[in-house]
Amino acid sequence: MIKNMKEILKFAKERGPKTIAVAVAEDLDVLLAVSKAQKLRIADAILVGDQDKIEKIAKTHHIDITACEMIHEKDIKEASRKAVALVSTGKAYIVMKGLVDTAIILKAVLNQEIGLRTGNVLSHTAVFEVPNYDRLIFVTDAAMNIAPDLMTKKQIIENAVEVAYALDIDTPKVAVVCAKEKVNPKMPPTVDAQKLEDMNKEGAIKGCMVGGPFALDNAVSKKAAKHKGIDHPVAGCADILLVPNIESGNVLYKSMVFFSDTKNAGVIVGAKAPIVLTSRADSDETKLNSIALAVLMAAKKSN
Ligand SMILES: CCCC(=O)OP(=O)(O)O
């Protein structure tokens, strides 16, 4: 069971390198992450984007990108399509979002001809290392599914469980997080939470233990759970937090990044290949962690 970002990097070194196709690579943090991943032998990179800008950033900041292949494409949408096509034609194993809006890269991923659709729901899983929490904690979905219905939530859980397996976490505990820990028909996410727990008990969601509804406190703190009289095997020790919608997920993600001393990584799951997807504002360290996470996902797929 991988417990922190250091171990994610360590295992990615052992299971890599894998080739990544970077869409719109003209970004300092992206280039720093990619060159470090290459130096650590975690990944090789094909940089798709504005070659002049890429070379200027690399030169100004003394970043060694000499080992990277480069495809010149100034247009952001075209660069996204070309990066995705590199993966669908087998020249790369992983797509990485560079300096491009999430919606644009995802449109390329979902493209009928060159895309990476599988028919499954695509969802984002963020992995956080949080001080004083004894395990990695996953947040899903902070980036893609706006207001998932029950069956979409089921698949979002299954996608996050796939990430957990790539980190050798067996039977991850999934907390369906709401504003309350009691079912309230006026709060639909609490009703879904109960249904998801029931589906898990009935075997319709496999390979994990689902509990809910939980408020965030009793999902991650045994003390809070005890205080509120909650006795549940997931209470206080969740591996995966399923949030009700993109607003709560994105706010939780960015609160963790900007208000606390966390390390993080993020990928989109459900396509034919993992997609490295962080916020444009995330650090080069986060982007490197995300590349390593995607390498572990790709290595698991090719096993
Ligand atoms: C995982 C967060 C995705 C996101 O919010 O990206 P941007 O900040 O680049 O919009």
Number of domains: 2
Terminal-residue CA separation = 18 Å
Helix content: 40-55%
CATH architecture of the largest domain: 3-Layer(aba) Sandwich
Strands in their spatial order, largest beta sheet? 3-2-1-4-11-10-5-6-9-7-8
Protein name: Phosphate butyryltransferase
Family: Belongs to the phosphate acetyltransferase and butyryltransferase family.
GO biological process, one term: butyrate metabolic process
Pfam families: PTA_PTB
Structural descriptors:
303 residues; alpha/beta; Rossmann fold; Isopropylmalate Dehydrogenase; eleven-stranded mixed beta sheet; 11 helices; globular; binds ligand LANB7ZPL
Protein topology:
Elements: H1 5-15, E1 18-23, H2 28-39, E2 43-49, H3 51-60, E3 69-72, H4 76-88, E4 94-97, H5 102-110, E5 123-129, E6 137-140, H6 150-166, E7 173-178, H7 188-201, E8 209-215, H8 216-220, H9 222-227, E9 240-242, H10 246-259, E10 263-269, E11 275-276, H11 284-301
Parallel strand pairs: 1-2, 1-4, 2-3, 4-11, 6-9, 7-8, 7-9
Antiparallel strand pairs: 5-6, 5-10, 10-11
Helix pairs in contact: 1-11, 2-11, 4-5, 6-11
The structure holds the ligand CCCC(=O)OP(=O)(O)O.
